[in-house]
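This protein record is not my work; I was only asked to verify it. The record follows directly below this note.
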Amino acid sequence: MKNAKKLIVVIAVLLLASDLFAQNVLDGVYIKEHTPKRRFIPYTPLREADVMWSRRIWRTVDLREKINHVLYFPTSPINDRKSLFDVIKTALLTGQITAYGSPLTDDEFKFPMTKSELEGMFSKVDTNYIPDLETGEMIPTPVKIEIGSQDIKQYWIKEDWFFDKQRSVLDVRIIGICPLRENKGDNGEVRGYSPMFWLYYPECRPVFANAEVYNRFNDAERRTLEDVLWKRQFGSYVNKESNVYDRSIAEYKLGLDALLEAEKIKNDIFELEHDLWHF
């Protein structure tokens, strides 16, 4: 009996020592302090009287494009990096940011979602059929499936382009961001994308400023999600601009015509700035 107690004490001491040793292990050559403590840069103050022109644009960011891979990978969190969706998911469940949603797409941030609604959205119950060993019949068994980064292949971005005559610059600021979940059929084929919720981007900036993304040229000079989005280091295409009908491009153009219409909207913004300084 005494030997058994001594053995239990030795095992407990060894486990405690292994935990302490694991906590002292540094995965790298230095402790990263810059990004975790980084603060986002405030926007330049803007008055309504200084805005001589503005246009609201909605964009689609497809994470399957190579330039956008830094927002998609890694699909499972690792020590120093998370995907954009994992950062959003963690921040939502911890109450750092707020999600807005409704039966329709709420890109005006009117209907905040509760934590229970988010938890129900991030996980779903599916049915798998398992054979019974005795009868051979297929028995339906509920299985809980977590929505992860691998299910989010696109994002919508809502932004405002404007010309600030006080600074004499054409500028853009992101107003909202919305992840789109990939819908798959029974055979695994993709059947489109559905919006999950909208996030108010200025509220997300402090969170994104502390989330690293991969830099293919230098691991010691990582960017953050805030850098990628604010400095426009991502690929996208226009799916809607403000209009009298409040309709998207897909409602009046299809296929190649829709892509040409998106490029026309982008070119119109470029020509506006160019013509202001053309002599």
